[in-house]
Each structure stands twice: as C-alpha cells, then as structure tokens.
Amino acid sequence: MRRVFFISVLLLSALLIGSCGSAPPAEEPVPVPATIAPTVSAPATPAPTPAPVVSAPVPAPAPVAPAPAPTPAPVATDPYTRHFSGVILNGAQQYTVQRGDILAGIAWRFYEDGSLYPLILLVSGDLIEDPDIIEPGMVLTIPSLNQNMNDSRARQSLNTLLRQIAQIEEQRGRPGTAALMRSHAN
Predict the structure, then answer these.
(1) In the chain, where are the structural domains located?
(2) What is the chain's mean pLDDT, rounded?
C-alpha cells in the first residue's frame, strides 16, 4: 500500500509541477497600425525669377498751397459780469443784514417793491436757505433791477425762480403773495 500511496503522491506532484510551470495560453496578437511615413517629393525646380520691370520715373505731385485758415466767426462777448444764474452783477451793491431785517424789506428799500426779493435771493442764495430767515451780519448782493429786468437771460432766470417761489407761497397758505410772484414772472 505504501507503494500505491507513493505513486499517487508522485503523480499528483508531477501534475501540479507541470501545470504551474506551463505558460499561460497565448493571447492573440493585437494588430498595430503601421505608421505612415510622410511622402517626400523631390524638390521642384524653382520658377524662374521674372526680370525687374523698369518704368519711367513717376513725377512727384505738385505742391499744394495750404488752404487759407478760416476766418473765425466774431465771438459775441457779454459786456456784463454775471452770476452763474445769469443775473447781471455789474452795478450791484452789497448790503449787510441788520437785526430785524427781512428779505422783502431789503427789496423794498432797494427796489421799492418787496415782492422782488427773489432777485436778491438768486445771487445770495448760497447764504440764504429760507427767504423768511436771514441773519444779522450776512452780506447780500443787491443786483441792479433795471439792468436785470431788461436783459433776457437774467429775466429768464428770475422768472423761473418767481414761478418756483409762487408754488412755495401757495403751499405756505399765502395765495396773495403767490399771485404777485406769478404776475412778476409774466
């Protein structure tokens, strides 16, 4: 029995050794695309160089006389010094507000019409936030009434302000003053 056992072990060992030592099944070869070598063609014969064309010399253009400079249009000069609002400042006076002054009272003193205070307001507006409140010591500019009423640009600025003040006076419940402002604006 030993013998049978011994032969069985040998056969099994041979089978195991034989199967381990054998190569794996061969894979089918994968086709590799062939690289295409660039075709090199023989150098072409160069085209013959054309002979240079010689032409008659081109005359230079005749010099052109420069155009005469345009005559500038006459500039209309404003003979007046104006506030940015358009009000004429030539002939304006300075007035320092006193205690108890009101803008309409100052306009009455200079223009004999208190409702023309908007003309003073136009050029002194950076000092005055509310026409009903002016402080002693403020220095107001009092423009010339005649020059400004007869100048269309100044008159247009004044009319615009008069209409705005008329609306404010209406809102404050002063319809009479509003009507007077509108009559000056027309």
Answers:
(1) 93-185
(2) 76
